[in-house]
Inverse folding.
């Protein structure tokens, strides 16, 4: 059966779709990139914002309209919060966010019995769904999901309701998976999770994220390790001392800030303040050469005044991020923030997002300028044009060098590059022979 896959949302979802596709292929389903002619469509949904919900819904309706005989299967965060199959009448199979690997058998059951299937489990245990990615296609980099769930309940976030209790992949399984991905030729492994820093917490045996990082970084092979988004309050000084000793660990930390104003952080129920955040950033920059700090910032949170916003802008300037994503606050039914007074109007949210984006682009430009003259290790990913070989440095800077020749590829090679210039969005350099 020709099967089409579509993933909405985060890196964890992309990892999970990759694993589902590997399972389905082993069961004889054949991947196609065209939903119009597919026999089966697998939609891994996201519910991080209300617009994410509508995008998933719209795409499913599009498939149902353009390919009425297609067996549409929806799973993931949006379906996990559903009470019944009525949420998506176009779908033959609806699974949740913790029984995705059951999909091949659910589809076969549907084909045999012809009855729509609503198979959304509860999320009230700490069991991680067993998934192991054997390879990520021809990609240079590969994700390893090591953690699931979140119990932080930030006031704007629906994820704890869609992903449930904390759960962690056992260390030996992480190592086995990493070895397989290294053997498959992947040069960068990205450890990811719903709340990565909560790795091991529910095990109550002292296992922590740093143990998983060490477990992967100490494996044999020519590869490097990157962390996906981490929560500021969970990276301790002893963790940093252990991380510094790992030469495979990339000096790039995506520290989710959300707001640079303490009053707003409190209203968001975040677990740090701006002093703690800037102290951590200072510590990381002192510990890692060429360290890049990137972030996520939300603007227009309920109750955020123009003065609070000014504070947030000046804090972002002070930290001088290497890059960042800006999100205007998006109301989410069922979250405490949705019921908060003093909701900020769309026009103001938009204006604040533009101001914050300007601060970030100025600090990104300054960061790229600081790279000029330095030699960095670049993992080449593609020949982006007839002119350039392109890749990312260990601190996640996009780097381009002139093509060596039309037929030469540097894909999956890690090479030293001397940075000679930048254009505000990437750096240019020359190979160090
Ligand atoms: S830490 Fe907060 S923002 Fe992140 S997933 Fe958990 S509840 Fe959501």
């Amino acid at each position: 059966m020709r099967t089409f896959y579509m993933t909405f949302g985060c890196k964890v979802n992309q990892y999970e779709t990759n694993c589902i596709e590997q399972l389905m292929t082993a069961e004889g389903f054949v991947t196609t990139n065209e939903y119009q002619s597919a026999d089966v469509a697998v939609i891994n949904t996201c519910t991080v914002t209300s617009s994410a919900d509508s995008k998933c819904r719209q795409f499913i309706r599009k498939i149902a309209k353009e390919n009425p005989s297609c067996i549409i299967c929806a799973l993931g965060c949006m379906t996990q919060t559903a009470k019944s199959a009525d949420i998506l009448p176009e779908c033959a199979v609806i699974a949740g966010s913790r029984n995705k690997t059951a999909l091949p058998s659910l589809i076969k059951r549907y084909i045999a019995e012809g009855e729509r299937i609503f198979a959304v489990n509860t999320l009230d245990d700490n069991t991680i769904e067993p998934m192991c990615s054997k390879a990520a296609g021809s990609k240079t980099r590969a994700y390893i999901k090591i953690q699931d769930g979140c119990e932080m309940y930030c006031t704007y976030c629906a994820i704890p309701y869609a992903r449930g209790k904390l759960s962690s992949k056992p260390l030996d399984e992480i190592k086995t998976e990493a070895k397989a991905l290294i053997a498959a030729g992947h040069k960068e492994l990205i450890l990811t999770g719903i709340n990565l820093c909560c790795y091991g917490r529910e095990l109550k045996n002292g296992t922590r994220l740093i143990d998983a990082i060490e477990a992967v970084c100490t494996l044999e092979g020519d590869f490097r390790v990157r962390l996906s988004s981490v929560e500021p309050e969970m990276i301790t000084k002893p963790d940093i001392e252990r991380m510094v000793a790992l030469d495979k660990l990339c000096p790039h930390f995506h520290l989710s800030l959300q707001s640079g104003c303490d009053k707003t952080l409190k209203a968001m129920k975040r677990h740090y303040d701006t002093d703690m955040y800037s102290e951590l950033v200072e510590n990381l920059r002192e510990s890692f050469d060429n360290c890049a700090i990137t972030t996520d910032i939300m603007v227009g949170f309920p109750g955020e005044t123009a003065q609070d916003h000014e504070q947030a802008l000046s804090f972002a300037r002070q930290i001088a991020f290497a890059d960042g994503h800006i999100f205007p606050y998006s109301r989410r039914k069922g979250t405490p923030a949705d019921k908060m007074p003093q909701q900020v109007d769309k026009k103001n949210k938009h204006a604040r997002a533009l101001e914050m984006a300007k601060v970030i682009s100025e600090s990104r430009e300054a960061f790229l300028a600081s790279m000029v003259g330095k030699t960095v290790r670049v993992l080449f990913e593609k020949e982006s044009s007839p002119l350039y070989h392109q890749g990312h440095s260990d601190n996640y800077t996009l780097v381009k060098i002139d093509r060596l020749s039309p037929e030469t590829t540097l894909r999956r090679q890690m090479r030293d590059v001397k940075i000679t210039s930048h254009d505000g969005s990437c750096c240019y350099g020359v190979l160090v022979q």
Remarks:
- The chain has twelve helices and 18 strands.
- The pocket of iron/sulfur cluster is lined by residues 150, 152-154, 157, 159-160, 194-195, 231 (CB under 6 Å).
- The chain has a mean pLDDT of 95.
